[in-house]
Amino acid sequence: MTFDEVINDIEKMVGLELESIKPGANITLTGIDREAKRIELVTYAGKAKTRPFSELKKIWDKLCSTPAAHVDSVLGGSGSSRNQPETVMANLPYIEWFFMNGKKHLALMKEPTHDYGTLYKMDEVAASEIKDNLMKAENTACEVVIVTEDIKATAAAYERVTGLSLKPVSPGIYEQYNDKFRFIFVSKSNLTDQVEVGTYTVVGGKVGSITGTSVSIIDREFLLFNEGGLQLLISK
């Protein structure tokens, strides 16, 4: 799903009162100004406000690249101003919320789980799994993706050399954490033809200044960079 599609979905909530996770901070979405790239809303106290698309995109990008997003951290602050874009995103049908260490977090679901303009608190079992993944992500210093023609043979070779077991994530994908390193093994058949067999380091980068193939691995989007022996997956 692209961010433009997210904006289309947000527009479906125009005219609805959107419940805030924080009690007493509901807002009503009144319009989408595509030319100015801002959403228009009225606060619970009746004040008209606008918020830039850029805030929503920062939240969306974080949701697409990590297990969950703490909006205050994503937008660099706290308070009602950050609560407004959080409320808009939380009321989308494919976003759920939960508390972690007393802080509100949003998570992107694979499928819609509730109606437009409603909140949905994630069940404890699912939230516990995402919290574990968040902790792993926070403690990961480096991610390496190994693309292979024969996933079983490559996984067996890694386990034989290191003595460490790999965990199956989904068909054709395994992972293993070791000393703040995350190794992800992916069958080439899961990816586009442009992705060659090899070992790729995951890095951040200026995605907008790079042209390349988009690669999706475990519901995360990357941009492939393979030049002069430098094989990278750039996190979007």
Helix content: 25-40%
Structural class of the secondary structure composition?
Answer: alpha+beta
Cα gyration radius (Å):
20 Å
Shape: elongated
Q: Note the main sheet.
A: 8 strands, mixed
Low-confidence stretches: none
Number of helices: 6
Beta-strand percent range: 25-35%
**Order of strands in the sheet with most strands:** 8-9-10-7-11-14-13-12
Order of helices and strands: HEEEEHHHEEHEHEEEEEEE
Determine the N-to-C terminus distance.
13 Å
pLDDT average, as an integer? 89
Number of strands: 14
Description:
The chain is built from 6 helices and 14 strands. It is an alpha+beta fold and 236 residues long. Helix 2 packs across helix 4 (80-90). The strands form 3 sheets. The protein has an 8-stranded mixed β-sheet with strand order 8-9-10-7-11-14-13-12, covered by helices on one side. The model has no long low-confidence stretch (mean pLDDT 89). Helix content is 28%, strand content 34%. It is elongated, with a radius of gyration of 20 Å.
